[in-house]
Amino acid sequence: MAAGQVLYARFEDVYVLKFVGSIGFTDQWTFPLAKSLRLFIDRLLGQDDYENIVVDLTECEGMDSTNLGLLAEVGRLSLDRFGRKASILVPEGGRMMRNLKVTGFETLFTLLDVDTPIRNDLEPLREVSDSELSVARMLLEAHQALSDMNESNKLMFKNVLEALESDVARLEAEQAKKEKTKG
């Protein structure tokens, strides 16, 4: 699988997010993309000058659960802000469409059977790094968003959520201990 890339563009009042390659853990760890996507979503939350979000997965070979959870947040953002589903462009017969259907993305997105990728002027999301605690919190939030989509996901990600909650608690305790010894 090719290493992943997340691209974006704004066309008038529509934001486009395009996922290319394998997004997540592969031969080349593309985890900083998840943090970049998190920051992009946070930026969208602070803006009100757009009317729709389209996600292009026509060239996405696979996506890990963290990025799926962040994608679920994009769908929730669209529903909350505009009262309608965002759209995902994805070939019907592919693995990505199956994964989206199994995890319940039809509740947050309109899944459109499209083979032709968006090729306009798209820019890559800038990769960013962050503290271990901040990343752990992002992982927890993304998996919580994925889990909240339906009961099946709650069961599927129950153990993952428990492990992530434990990791966040451990890192928070370590950070508090460091701050206490500094002060």
Q: Your description of this structure?
A:
48% of the residues lie in helices and 22% in strands. The chain is of the alpha/beta class and 183 residues long. The chain has a single domain (5-182), classed as STAS domain (Transcription Regulator spoIIAA), CATH 3.30.750.24. The protein has a six-stranded mixed β-sheet. A hairpin with a 2-residue loop joins strand 1 (5-11) and strand 2.
Set out the fold topology.
Blueprint (H helix, E strand, L loop, with lengths): L4 E7 L2 E10 L7 H15 L6 E12 L1 H18 L3 E5 L4 H8 L6 E5 L9 E2 L7 H16 L3 H6 L1 H25 L1
Parallel strand pairs: 2-3, 3-4, 4-5
Antiparallel strand pairs: 1-2, 1-6
Helix pairs in contact: 1-2, 2-4, 4-6
Provide a concise account of the structure shown.
This protein has one domain (5-182): 2-Layer Sandwich (Transcription Regulator spoIIAA). It is built from 6 helices and 6 strands.
